[in-house]
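Subject: Sanity check before I submit

Could someone independently write out the structure tokens for this chain? I want to compare against mine line by line before I put it in a report. The sequence has 287 residues.
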Amino acid sequence: MPELPEVEALKDFLTEHLTGHEIVRVLPVAISVLKTYDPPLTAVEGGEVTAVHRHGKFLDLETADGLHLVTHLARAGWLHWRDRLPDGPPRPGKGPLALRVALETGEGFDLTEAGTQKRLAVYLVRDPGEIPGVARLGPDPLADGFDEERFAALLKNERRQLKGALRDQSLIAGVGNAYSDEILHAARMSPFKLAASLTPEETHTLYAALRDTLTQAVERSRGVAAGRLKAEKKSGLRVHGRTGEACPVCGDTVREVSFSDSSLQYCPTCQTGGKPLADRRMSRLLK
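---
Independent answer below. Compare away.
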């Protein structure tokens, strides 16, 4: 799933390639992708893109008419830039193409989604705050005003485990499964540790890991073409998606805890005092 660093990089890329250009056509290929109907999607056609924004994991194309074409790429969605779009409209079918946006220059981009769980979402609204997912977003962890004091206040009465708290978009916007693993590894903390149990020193450590991990990921992604962002993200991850590999910090084997629709990765030596975490789903499979 694209998270804050990748969406920030896409925002920068689209700012460079879209700003000042006219959207001449928006073609939904998968009907399920469109989540709003008023104003109609055709209303954005003929509009000049004046800015590109990021709200958590949402991309927002703003036009001179005051409309916002907002996209959430979900787990398996992606944006593919085309220097020259194919002639003729795309054909609806079983392929990954979900929506196409064409500019007056003949350039544009496709939104695609792999797999059978179609969660990619596109909205056309007058105010991004009309979108429930945007309206409920917590603070952006890389915003200038997001200081350690504010972070501590968010966690003070948080009774969930750190992994779940960091992924909650209404608590902190933009962090998902991959970067929550990376942040906790950098902080040397168990993903199962309760957020409200952190000491002031631990809160300081976690805040620094949050900011540093995301800042470094954004810097790695800056200037990378849209088509190479996935590979760039994977190359920079130290524990997420690396089950069975050696931890780059201590050399221990990276382990995994599986859930119904996701998994987390961690280093026992760095994060849990050398003790493996219980993986109830895997234990059931082995019985």
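---
OP: Matches mine. For the report I'm noting this point. The CA atoms of residues 246 and 253 lie 5 Å apart.
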